[in-house]
Design a protein that fits this description.
Layout lengths: L1 E4 L2 E4 L1 E4 L10 E8 L18 E2 L9 E2 L10 E7 L3 E26 L4 E16 L9 E10 L1 E2 L6 E2 L3 E6 L9 E14 L4 E18 L4 E6 L5 E4 L4 E2 L5 H14 L9
Length: 268
C-alpha cells in the first residue's frame, strides 16, 4: 500500500515471515572504498586498498586510505560504526567513485501469548553531502544515498537482499562548498510467529562521484514496534519492553514519513 505525506510517497510492504531452518550468524560491517584504489596496469577498479572492515565499534573517521604514488593527490578516507539500533558512516573522496556503507544482520525473537502478530520495522536516517575540492582545483561532486530493510546480507557485505522496504535520496550535482541535507525513511509491516526466531538485515549507504564528502554519522536508526503485551529481543542486543500501545507506536513511525525529504538543495 502507499502512504502519502507532504508530497512524498512511501511504499510499505506487508509480509508473513515463515520459520527458516538455519540462521546466519549476526553480523556488523562498515565498508569504505574507492575505484581509485587500483593499479592501472591491473585494470580500472582492481582493488589494492581495504574495501571492508568488520566492526562493532567506531572506525577512525580521519584514517586515509593511501593511494599509489602514481596518484599522490587522490585520496579517500572514512569510517563508521554499527550496533543493534544504529548505522553510521563517513566518507570523503576527491576524485573518481567512492562508497561507504554500514550494514547489520540480526536474529529476533518475540515473546508473549502464542500466535502470529503484526510488527512494524522502521529505519530512518539523516545525512549531509558537500562538494570538496578536486586535484584540478575546482569543486564538483554528487552523492546517492540508500536505505534498505531486508532479510539477509549480500555476499559483498555492502548491502542487504530480499528487500522488505527501502528509500533513496540524491544530492544532485554540487559545484561549490555548502551542505545538502538528506532525510530518508524505510518501513516494513510484517506478521511474525511468537517464539520463532527470524532474521532482518539493514543497510545505510552512499555512493559518491568526483569530489564529495558524505556524513552519515547522524545515524540510521532502527525501531521495531510490537503490540502491547509482547517483547522483542535480538542476538545483537535489541530489546523493546512492552510499548504503551501498538497503535501509538505505529502512528509515531508513520509520522516520520510525513516529515521526510523536506529539503533538497542543489547548489550550482
Amino acid at each position: 500500500m502507499k502512504l502519502l505525506g507532504l508530497g512524498t510517497v512511501a511504499t510499505v510492504f506487508v509480509f508473513l515471515l515463515t520459520p527458516i531452518a538455519a540462521h546466519a550468524a549476526p553480523m556488523q560491517q562498515v565498508s569504505i572504498g574507492s575505484t581509485y584504489c587500483s593499479d592501472p596496469a591491473a585494470g580500472f577498479g582492481a582493488p589494492t586498498c581495504p574495501t571492508g572492515v568488520s566492526t562493532t565499534g567506531f572506525l577512525d573517521s580521519t584514517t586515509q586510505h593511501a593511494h599509489p604514488t602514481w596518484q599522490p593527490t587522490i585520496s579517500v578516507k572514512g569510517g563508521g560504526s554499527t550496533s543493534a539500533t544504529k548505522l553510521r558512516f563517513f566518507v570523503e573522496a576527491n576524485a573518481g567513485f567512492s562508497y561507504a556503507s554500514a550494514v547489520i544482520a540480526d536474529t529476533y525473537t518475540i515473546t508473549g501469548a502464542p500466535g502470529n502478530i503484526p510488527i512494524t520495522v522502521s529505519l530512518t536516517a539523516s545525512a549531509t553531502a558537500e562538494a570538496v575540492q578536486r586535484p584540478p582545483g575546482d569543486y564538483f561532486g554528487s552523492a546517492n544515498f540508500g536505505l534498505n530493510i531486508g532479510t539477509a546480507v549480500a555476499a559483498s557485505g555492502r548491502n542487504v537482499v530480499n528487500l522488505l522496504g527501502s528509500d533513496t535520496a540524491a544530492s544532485g550535482n554540487l559545484f561549490a562548498p555548502g551542505l545538502v541535507n538528506i532525510n530518508m525513511a524505510a518501513m516494513a509491516m510484517l506478521n511474525v510467529t511468537v517464539g520463532v526466531p527470524f532474521d532482518l538485515a539493514y543497510d545505510f549507504s552512499v555512493t559518491g562521484s568526483s569530489g564529495i564528502r558524505a556524513d552519515g554519522l547522524n545515524t540510521g536508526t532502527i525501531n521495531i514496534s510490537v503490540p502491547a503485551g509482547y517483547t522483542i529481543t535480538s542476538a545483537l542486543g535489541y530489546g523493546v519492553p512492552e510499548p504503551a500501545t501498538f497503535a501509538l507506536a505505529l502512528a509515531a513511525t508513520l509520522f516520520v514519513f510525513g516529515r521526510r525529504k523536506r529539503a533538497r538543495l542543489i547548489t550550482r
